[in-house]
Amino acid sequence: MRTIIDSSFYLCLIVFSSLATVKGYKNASESEYSNNNQCHTGQIEYKLTKLEVLTAERSESVKSELRENNRRLQALEWQNADVGSAIESLKNELSRFTSSGQISYSRPSSEDKDVENLNEKLEVLSKGIHLAVAAIKLNNVELKSMKQDLASVTNNTRKIVADYHQLLNKEFFNDALVEMKHRINVRHVSSDKCNPQNEDKPKDCVDLKKNGKKSGVYKIYPDNYHQGFMVLCEMEASGGGWAVVQNRLDGSQNFYLGWRDYKHGFGNLGGEFWLGLDNLYYLTGHEVNELVIELVDHASTKKFAHYGSFSIGSEMEGYSLKLLSQYQGDAGDSLTYHAGSRFSTKDMDQDSWEEGSCAKSHSGAWWYNSCDTSNLNGKYLGGELPDNFIYQGMYWGEFRGAQYSLKQVRMMVRPRDKAEENF
């Protein structure tokens, strides 16, 4: 038991020390970048691979020790059963001898001494059996306690191993490297701003609108991400200058995806897509934006919901819906219920529903509370839904409800204080 507990504790130390190691790599890389203007990511990835192998070996060692302790406990239970059988046999023998002794009292007086000796031996044997029974009962109590302790340690260890597999894997470290590179680049944004060539780079679709650009795909360079990214700009609707962050038209793109896809974005900017939570944070995390959501049902009825203030948090904050207010429109307000909630996917449950996962239950990814009044990243199912598909579709509670999957949805944002025209 002590070995298992120590191993579990050691595995915890590996998890936290691994995270600390990543932080150390990050700091070292940032320092080296500032001196040499380059990142030796190959060496870092090699060290991360070694770290992954080490933690995997330790995990397997803990599992082996758990199996060995289970084997020993089973052997102890078998021995306990054998001792119990032996005690029953002795009890039967004692009963037989006692009966024999009682009969022998009627024998001639010359045998009285032998009978007395036999009775004394039987009495000693009886006491020994009672002591053995008491010891077995005590052993059973201790065995039960050991099994409970082992079960607790096993569950805790499995949880640690599961958390390790979720956190300490290659994808986790690759994401950490990408984030580290981004943060290193962000440190040099201020120097880039001093470069006259960067003054003409559009920060958002509003800048492109002011330069006379039409609706289309462009590269923008938000203040906090100087490398920029591609975005579809809508220049005609509601005054223009909108960055489209979600577009659903025909169900050609699967939206029931995991955390990494929603973090980095997926789909085709010329069709159905999700721009990515990272990009949405770059657009809205440092200045207040407007959000407009356009909805179309299968009868071509169009509705909209506009929020005058919209902003989400960083990944460390779970991309939470930090700011949402000033609703207007004819679709009804089916998003305010989600204000303050973190973003959840089928493999990253951050909702407020303690009994389950809203993302899995509703086949989507959203700022689930417990669970939702809208599910615009749900499955593309098409129109009225049977009872067994309720809440599964792409729906807006105040427009058609949860038992109806919409035909088209488009979500767009733009800086609130830069728009040339009010919504």
TrEMBL record:
Residues 56-93 form a coiled coil. This is Fibrinogen C-terminal domain-containing protein. CDD domains: FReD (cd00087). Residues 1-24 form the signal peptide. It comes from the Eukaryota. GO terms for cellular component: extracellular region. One of its GO terms (molecular function) is carbohydrate binding. SUPFAM superfamilies: Fibrinogen C-terminal domain-like. Residues 196-417 form the Fibrinogen C-terminal domain. Transmembrane segments: none annotated. Lectin involved in innate immunity. Agglutinates all types of human erythrocytes, Gram-positive and Gram-negative bacteria. Has a stronger agglutinating activity towards Gram-negative bacteria than towards Gram-positive bacteria. Specifically recognizes acetyl group-containing substances on agglutinated cells. The hemagglutinating activity was inhibited by EDTA, acetyl group-containing mono- and disaccharides, N-acetyl derivatives of amino acids, other acetyl group-containing substances, propionamide and benzamide. Keywords: Coiled coil, Disulfide bond, Glycoprotein, Secreted, Signal. Its main location: secreted. It is found in: Secreted. It holds the Pfam family Fibrinogen_C. It comes from Henosepilachna vigintioctopunctata.
